[in-house]
Amino acid sequence: MPDQIRENSSPPSGTHDRFALVTGASSGIGACFARALAARGMNLVLVAKSRSKLEAIKAEIQAKFPRRVEVIEQDLSAPGAAERLHSELKDRGILVDLLVNNAGFGAQGEFWQLPLARQTEMLRLNIVTLTELTHLLLPAMIARRSGGIINVSSTAGFQPIPYSSVYAATKAYVTSFSMGLTEEVRASGVKVLALCPGGTATNFFDAGRFDKISFPGGLQSPEAVVEAGLRALDRGRSLVVTRFVNRMMLFVQRLAPRRLVARQAGEMFRPRGIANRQ
Ligand SMILES: NC(=O)c1ccc[n+]([C@@H]2O[C@H](COP(=O)([O-])OP(=O)(O)OC[C@H]3O[C@@H](n4cnc5c(N)ncnc54)[C@H](OP(=O)(O)O)[C@@H]3O)[C@@H](O)[C@H]2O)c1
Questions:
Q1: Model confidence, pTM
Q2: Considering 167, 173, 204, 269, which one is annotated as catalytic?
Q3: In terms of CB atoms within 10 Å, which of 34, 69, 177, 271 comes out highest?
Q4: What 3 state SS string does the chain have?
């Protein structure tokens, strides 16, 4: 986390109000980021499609903390969304100190059967908008020689996942892009983190119409994911895989042939109605 952001602190005097922009802040991991960052003294820009949910989270936060909370309703999968959001920030006079690129969704099913439009939306939200927002907000952070970016990736990005092939590929991109960027900007004082949770108890599986998937160790709480992410950013890490059980699984699968790993992942993610064809 950028140096001056500390638990329950107010913005240091003589500096601008410190803002975190959280995409997908209306539920799950994004909503938990909003609460945790407000507790650490940051003002917030909350972005998602559901204005009513964002307004409810704003009210909840402002009942506890004297923070400025700006709500921006925006479909971040639409072409040009990042540019529109950036100019809205300028209009409101907001400088972003911490960007949390969290909005994202998945889908389960055979690639050729899932609607192409929905998968293209996923590519735009999970990859294109995340990249564009980073490109638009990073130069000002570099100029100030401070700031942070947390890109919410996933353990899904560490191997191909049959029946969620596009989703897993989007997260492979997010992890690779973020870690490359960490090294590019390291000397500038800006921190970039790829946050990789495994299965987390949010609305994600309902939104992507997943069958029930059994994750080793069950689902992690979104609060624990956020805490691990903020701690890793504080420490200047480029990557964090949350939870010991997830790190162990990734370690073991590095030793196995990639084809077998993909096949195993397919077993885990195959929808109930699709027969095993192997
Ligand atoms: N849950 C997991 O098991 C898990 C594991 C690893 C990584 N992740 C990642 O964690 C991130 C957050 O997901 P979550 O688990 O917290 O799921 P979630 O509860 O479904 O939250 C997704 C958030 O993204 C927003 N969103 C979706 N489409 C959007 C769009 N087109 N434009 C703007 N905002 C949009 C949603 O709000 P609106 O619908 O209001 O727009 C919501 O706030 C995602 O990137 C996901 O890939 C999740």
A1: 0.94
A2: 167
A3: 34
A4: CCCCCCCCCCCCCCCCCCEEEEECCCCHHHHHHHHHHHHCCCEEEEEECCHHHHHHHHHHHHHHCCCCEEEEECCCCCCCHHHHHHHHHHHCCCCEEEEEECCCCCCCCCCCCCCHHHHHHHHHHHHHHHHHHHHHHHHHHHHHCCEEEEEECCHHHHCCCCCCHHHHHHHHHHHHHHHHHHHHHHHHCEEEEEEECCCECCCHHHHCCCCCCCCCCCCECHHHHHHHHHHHHHCCCCEEECCHHHHHHHHHHHCCCHHHHHHHHHHHHCCCCCCCCC
